[in-house]
Amino acid sequence: MLPIGAGKPRWFAALPGIGWLLLFTLVPLLLMLLISFWTSTIFGLRADWTLRNWTRLFSTPVYFDLLFKTVRIAFLTTLVTLVLSYPIALFLARTSGFVKTIAIVMLFLPFWIGYVVRTFAWLPILGRTGLLNQGLLAIGIIDTPVEWFLYNEAAVYLGLVYVYLLFMVLPIFLSLDRIDHSLIEAAIDLHATPFAVLRHVLLPLSFPGVLSGCIMVFLLTLGAYVTPALLGGPSGIMFSNVIATQFLADNNWAMGSTLSLLMMALVFAVLIVAGRKFGLQRVFMSAKGH
Amino acid sequence: MASQRDAKGISGLLVGYALVIYLFLYAPIVTVIVLSFNDSQIVGFPWKGFTMKWFWVVFTNPELLRATANSLLLGVASAVIATVLALLLALAFRRNLPFKATVFNLILIPIIVPGIVAGAVLVVLFGLFKVELSLWTSVLCAHVTFVLPFAFLNLHPRLHNFDSTLEEAAEDLGASPAMVQREVVLPIIRPGIIAAFLFAFSLSFDEFVRTLLLTGFDRTLPVQFWYMIVETLAPEAPAMAVLIIVISVISSLAGFAFSNRSSKTEPST
Question: Looking at the partner chain, which of B98, B128, B248 has a beta carbon nearest the beta carbon of A113?
Answer without folding.
Answer: B248
